Amino acid sequence: MEEKEISKAVISRLPRYYRYLGDLIDAGVERISSNDLSQKMRVTASQIRQDLNNFGGFGQQGYGYNVKYLRTEIGKILGLNQKHNMLIIGVGSLGHALANYSSFEKHGFAVKGLFDVNPALKGASIRGIPICMMEDLEGFLQDHEIEIAALTIPKSQALEVADRLVKCGIKAIWNFTHTDLNLPEDVIVESVHLSDSLMKLSYNITTYKEEHGR
Questions:
Q1: Over the Cα atoms of the chain, what is R_g?
Q2: What distance in Å separates the CA atoms of residue 158 and residue 149, rounded to the nearest whole number?
Q3: Within a 10 A sphere around the Cβ of 127, how many other Cβ atoms?
Q4: What is the CATH number of domain 8-77?
Q5: Pairing mode, if any, of strands 148-151 and 84-89?
Q6: I need a surface site. Which of 61, 106, 131, 156 has the fewest CB within 10 A?
Q7: In this structure, what are the phi and psi dihedrals at residue 211, rounded to the nearest 5 degrees?
């Protein structure tokens, strides 16, 4: 049987479902209908049902969705029931903030290494994770099973570092470098362009002002 291809739009909504369902659990909600969930997420009930039906549905007519069960199943779809070892390259302001983000561990992402080129950082650590120098990168990757590398370095260095990572077997890169990486097709790249997000916000503000005469 041919496996159904899931659209990127559907995948992009799954983390939102997971997050909202977590909020519902914290609030003591045990079950919810697609209509009630749609009001919280500003996604139509029909869209929610269509999205979840790509993976089996998970709901019961007349009952809705069991919140804990649905969140667990979405977590499995997202691979959050597995452990993903990662490292961060570039321990400037953004890299330091990522290294301090303890919630990664709650979702199965374990930061195992930090790397930088600044010799003043050698021997320092963040949350008990030592900062290593870039000349030690290949040796570290040989000794540790790392799946994901986060790049928070200047874009001028991004491709060179990414190529080093790929040669060492890294197959997933979380790219914060504000440049697109031309890597082999079997390497998964998730790029985060913070300026793009800010420009979208600027567009929405401008459009709102024009529509409301402000």
A1: 21
A2: 12
A3: 11
A4: 1.10.10.10
A5: parallel
A6: 61
A7: -70, -30
Which sequence spans correspond to the domains of the chain?
A: 8-77, 84-196
Q: How far is CA 184 from the centre of its chain?
A: 21
Q: At what angle do helices 45-53 and 34-41 cross, to 10 degrees?
A: 110
- The residues, any chain, with a CB within 8 Å of residue 3's CB and separated by 6 or more, are none
CA separation for the pair 152, 148 (Å, rounded): 13
Residue 151's nearest CA partner among 100, 109, 89, 93 is 89
Give tens-digit pLDDT for 51-68: 998 888 787 776 789 999
Q: At residue 214, does pLDDT exceed 80?
A: no
Q: How far apart are CA 157 and CA 179, in angstroms?
A: 10
Using alpha carbons, select from 82, 54, 81, 70 the residue that is nearest to residue 19.
Answer: 70
Neighbours of 198 (CB within 10 A): 10
Residues 189/173, Cβ–Cβ less than 8 Å: yes
What's the pTM value of the predicted model, to 2 decimals? 0.84
Where do we find the tokens 């991004």?
A: 158
Any idea which fold 84-196 has? Rossmann fold (3.40.50)
